[in-house]
Amino acid sequence: MASLQERMALLERDLADPKKRLSDQMMVPMAVFLYEPRDEYVLRREKELLAIRLRNSGKHIVEVDLCELLWSMITEVFPKEEFFQAERSQGLQPVLETIINILGGTGERPSLEERIAQLVGELPADSGVVLLWRLGALYPVYNASHLLARLQGKVKLPVVLFYPGTQEDRTTLRFMGKWAPGGSYRERIY
C-alpha cells in the first residue's frame, strides 16, 4: 500500500479534477481514506494541509469533526454530568442505546446525517468537499458504512470519510484494525 502522504496526494488530485469522480456507483461521490490508527496525528496534520490546499484552489471545505458533533447532539438532550452519572448508575448498555436514539434523531431533533447535511448547506456539487473525521467517537454505536449510505441524497458535495483501520479485501474494512468488519464499502478506498 502506498504511504499516507502518497494516497493523500492522489485524493487531492482526484478532488481537484472536475472530470474525476470519487465513485461512479453513487449519486453523491464518496470516498474512504483508510489510515493506520497509530497514524492519527499524522493524518490530522495531512488532512489540515489538504483542506488548506483545496481552499486555496477555490473549493469550499466543510470539515465535520464527528466527535464534536456527537457531543453537541448529546448535550442538547443531557448535560454532560447527567450523562456521565447515568453511565455510572445504569451501566454502559443503556447509555449506548440512548446515544443510538440521539444519533437517529426524532421528530424534534435531526439525525446525525441531517446534522451533517445542515452543516454542508446548499453548496453546489462542484464547489466543495466534505471531510468527515474523528470517526472513532461513533464506535460502537454507529457504523461508518451506514453513515455513508444514509448521507446519500442528503448532501450534494463529494464526501471523504477518514477511517482508522485496515482493509480485509476490496470492500471490507476492519475498524481500528481490531474489530470485526462492519459493512461493505462501495466507495473508493484510498
> Major sheet: size, sense and barrel closure?
6 strands, mixed
Task: Give the % helix.
Answer: 40-55%
Beta-sheet strand percentage?
15-25%
Rg result: 17 Å
What's the SSE pattern?
HEHEHHHHEHEEE
- The tally of domains stands at 1
Supply the number of helical segments: 7
Number of strands: 6
pLDDT averaged over residues: 87
CATH arch. level architecture: 3-Layer(aba) Sandwich
Which structural class best describes the helix and strand composition?
Answer: alpha/beta
Mass-distribution shape:
globular
- Residue stretches low in confidence (pLDDT < 50, at least 5 long) are none
N-end to C-end Cα span: 9 Å
Could you name the CATH class?
Alpha Beta
Under CATH, the topology can be stated as: Rossmann fold
Structure description:
The protein is 43% helix and 17% strand. It starts with a helix and ends with a strand. The chain is built from 7 helices and 6 strands, in the order αβαβααααβαβββ. It has one domain: Rossmann fold (3-Layer(aba) Sandwich). With 190 residues, it is α/β, with parallel strands linked by helices. β4 and β5 form a beta hairpin. α4 crosses α5. Strands 1, 2, 3, 4, 5 and 6 form a 6-stranded mixed beta sheet that branches.
